[in-house]
Amino acid sequence: MRRPRSAVLLSALAVSLTTALVPLTPAGAAGATLTVNVAQPFRPVTHVAAGGLYGLAENGRPADSTLLPLKLNSLTQPAPGVGQRPNGQPPGGDSLLVAPQATRVGAGEFIRMPDIYPNFPYGWVSWNDWLAKVDTMVRARLNATSVTNVIGWELWNEPDWTWNTSAAGSFNDGWTRTYRAVRALDSTTPIVGPSTSYYNRSWLSSFLSSAKATGTLPDVICWHELGDPTAIAAHIADYRALESSLGISPRRISINEYAATSEVDVPGRIASYVAKLERGGVESAHRAFWYEYGTLNGLVVNNSQPTGTWWLYKWYGDMAGRMVTTTPATQTGLDGFASYDATRKIVNVVFGNESGTNTVRVTGIGALGSSVRVTLQSTPASGRFTAVTAPTTVSTSTYTVSNGQISVSVPNMSATSAYNLVIQPVSGVPSYQQRYEAENAAVFRAQRLTSSSASEGGYVGRIDNNTSTHSTDSYVDFVVNVPTARAYTMTIGYANATGATATQGLAYNGGAWTTVSYPPTAAWGQFGATVGTTVNLRAGYNVIRLAKGSPNFAGGTGYAELDYIQLT
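== CBM6 domain-containing protein ==
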């Protein structure tokens, strides 16, 4: 957490776009060009940057209805028994108390341990005091047997300036003591750190060398990007080189605070952050906290109304299938991120951070046909207090595909606004998304893997854990959106090479459990087999869980890998 040093907030309004799209060849392009290569996917859609620091507060704030469309990846929330008073507010957002809501919307949680203190920077007392607090926090989490979504202990926050060296000794030694205290009680939950306030190679080198020597390396490496997205790619590349030079196996990366006060409510700027975080291969990234907790960092006003920036994350949440390569002309201006859902033949491109007339060049779309329908939307920088009921539809046009590509000219762009380009066959697509890839879902204590026989090339395996305490249960949560309330046939693509029938639990929207049976198949990672069942879903968003273990479920038998679910 960092607090604003001044009352800085952008509330610029986007320029209204009224000019229709005009198909252009690349030779006629004006301004900057963002190139999207649909034929070059690089990872499954997991909405890595859809998360926030202190995004949730007790009593269901914000409303589930504003969270489900965003497909939240993860959150960083305060420790159990939180004492932190962010910006003078009462303590709130206790990770264990908000866990039921986070679980309802499919989000994992990092627990930020130093938020047990009331002040920021943290008011160190003594080692006896801190270790007693660590013991209390970890035991509280372990005793909360209905909480299954904790994905990491964050041992400290911004130690490069908040650690009290004179009173507590060196941070590297403090990290080792804290790590060992957590591991003495909890041997499995990933440990996250060091969570520095910015990327600092020399600081990280000292920390990693010490952690390697003491056997206390974090499972998830973390630092913050709070003011300039243009350096993100270089920071990640430099970290990977540092890691290799020290003989450390690759860590998962979380940027669990991103965007400065002047950027966090500016969708055009956020588009640039998300693009760079996706391309950089981070596992998770969270919007920084600057003002009020329980608003998903300014995405929701009045508990249930979206702001302009919410719509950018809604477009992000609509993405499915695989992320595809985007190439900006430079790191400083026009940028964006894109996906391709091959099962529906839909390309989504979200972009911004540039003014004037610019071009989005989309290649590798021959599979969509000789003509495509292109819809362009925009959303303004409305600030964190102004609701935006819907994005603006700028235009819908038909483009001729030439050599597998089109170039879309976007006139009158505002650098503070974000834009959404949806490309689909002119013949249309299904009225709602029917297939949901397992690797796109929220995955807990299991692993995303790849296979040439899997739908969209990915699946989820090692769904192995069923424990009495449920803290390490394995399950997959699918956030689905259906048009009407009715019974749907749910087809599940799977593999089961145990030689015997395996089972998993099935529940949706927190309801009763049933069992799904998976007859044996020829081999692991080879797909084509399916089983079917019926689910009664409500209109709109639903969360469907397939589990080896979960609270209130007796547990599955054997093992099965998940490729996708399909609702018809």
